[in-house]
Amino acid sequence: SAMNAPKGGLVIFTANSNPSCMELGKRISERLGVMLGKVQVYQETNRETRVQIQESVRGKDIFIIQTVSKDVNTAIMELLIMVYACKTSCARSIIGVIPYFPYSKQCKMRKRGSIVSKLLASMMCKAGLNHLITMDLHQKEIQGFFNIPVDNLRASPFLLQYIQEEIPDYRNAVIVAKSPSSAKRAQSFAERLRLGIAVIHGEAQDAESDLVDGRHSPPAVKNIGAIHPSLDIPLLIPKEKPPITVVGDVGGRIAIIVDDIIDDVDSFLAAADTLKERGAYKIYVMATHGILSCHAPRLIEESAIDEVVVTNTIPHEIQKLQCPKIKTVDISMILSEAIRRIHNGESMSYLFRNIGVDD
């Protein structure tokens, strides 16, 4: 009946004051054929964030697109204030579209640290978020930090398509994990492309001079006073990484390193050098989120890597000007389809077809 029909339409806002971050929002709204909602987001002279929504949101489905720029903390504050503004203006539902979820690397307890992505999830829910759409969370378990539905979309179909269409002779490629922790992702790519995988393990050995100066020797006295005499807690043997080994053959092959985030590029450069030594003749890096901070573009440009392929979950136009090796894959299509399906109450499973548990 007409009474139960969804009221109002959908409104799409971008919660960024940074103009380079508006790009993805514009693409999504163009694909959906709607105008971006009118809103002012800006920093006052005292660096406080102010959000002024300039149209009615009462009873509407609000989608807030937030891409994260260099100034990540401002982006978070903009999002929280925007969500809260919509909540207090009686929006029917507020859905966050946050392609790269910030602080996602801080999702495990470290000694005397904290699980920041859990804190961020709580803040977003508290501000009034009803649903989250994101892409390639650093750890899938972050979904459990929210007490709202989370759709963790995947960029891998777009990256796989790029490999098949843009890498000539990709059948002679091998998918590489630059450390055992990204082996699952590499395995998933390799199985879909029917290619082999290689995993790099260990780290470059230090010069001997470092090892003999006594820094690594155990302390002379074992402080027993602290432990109760009857408690003898066994000491764990400290980890020592073996010298670098490559499990799998890359000789005479194209090496495609896959990962979810590329930010600090040192480990990628080291991996590229190792692969070159083992006879790989071309090296690609594929990652969903190209954060590429600081000197990353210059380092990539000077390195053995032939091409770095990232998606536009994070704006990186400036980095591309510094480094022509960086290529972009557009993922706005899957985000706009997710928005359309949620707004129309359609099933999302189509967007996850062929996605396995371990992907």
From TrEMBL:
<dbReference type="InterPro" id="IPR000836">
    <property type="entry name" value="PRTase_dom"/>
</dbReference>
<dbReference type="GO" id="GO:0006164">
    <property type="term" value="P:purine nucleotide biosynthetic process"/>
</dbReference>
<dbReference type="GO" id="GO:0006015">
    <property type="term" value="P:5-phosphoribose 1-diphosphate biosynthetic process"/>
</dbReference>
<dbReference type="GO" id="GO:0000287">
    <property type="term" value="F:magnesium ion binding"/>
</dbReference>
<dbReference type="GO" id="GO:0005737">
    <property type="term" value="C:cytoplasm"/>
</dbReference>
<comment type="similarity">
    <text>Belongs to the ribose-phosphate pyrophosphokinase family.</text>
</comment>
<protein>
    <recommendedName>
        <fullName>Phosphoribosyl pyrophosphate synthase-associated protein 2</fullName>
    </recommendedName>
</protein>
<comment type="function">
    <text>Seems to play a negative regulatory role in 5-phosphoribose 1-diphosphate synthesis.</text>
</comment>
<dbReference type="InterPro" id="IPR029099">
    <property type="entry name" value="Pribosyltran_N"/>
</dbReference>
<dbReference type="GO" id="GO:0005524">
    <property type="term" value="F:ATP binding"/>
</dbReference>
<keyword id="KW-0545">Nucleotide biosynthesis</keyword>
<dbReference type="InterPro" id="IPR029057">
    <property type="entry name" value="PRTase-like"/>
</dbReference>
<dbReference type="GO" id="GO:0002189">
    <property type="term" value="C:ribose phosphate diphosphokinase complex"/>
</dbReference>
<dbReference type="Pfam" id="PF13793">
    <property type="entry name" value="Pribosyltran_N"/>
</dbReference>
<keyword id="KW-0597">Phosphoprotein</keyword>
<comment type="subunit">
    <text>Binds to PRPS1 and PRPS2.</text>
</comment>
<feature type="domain" description="Ribose-phosphate pyrophosphokinase N-terminal">
    <location>
        <begin position="11"/>
        <end position="128"/>
    </location>
</feature>
<dbReference type="Pfam" id="PF14572">
    <property type="entry name" value="Pribosyl_synth"/>
</dbReference>
<dbReference type="InterPro" id="IPR005946">
    <property type="entry name" value="Rib-P_diPkinase"/>
</dbReference>
<keyword id="KW-0007">Acetylation</keyword>
<dbReference type="GO" id="GO:0004749">
    <property type="term" value="F:ribose phosphate diphosphokinase activity"/>
</dbReference>
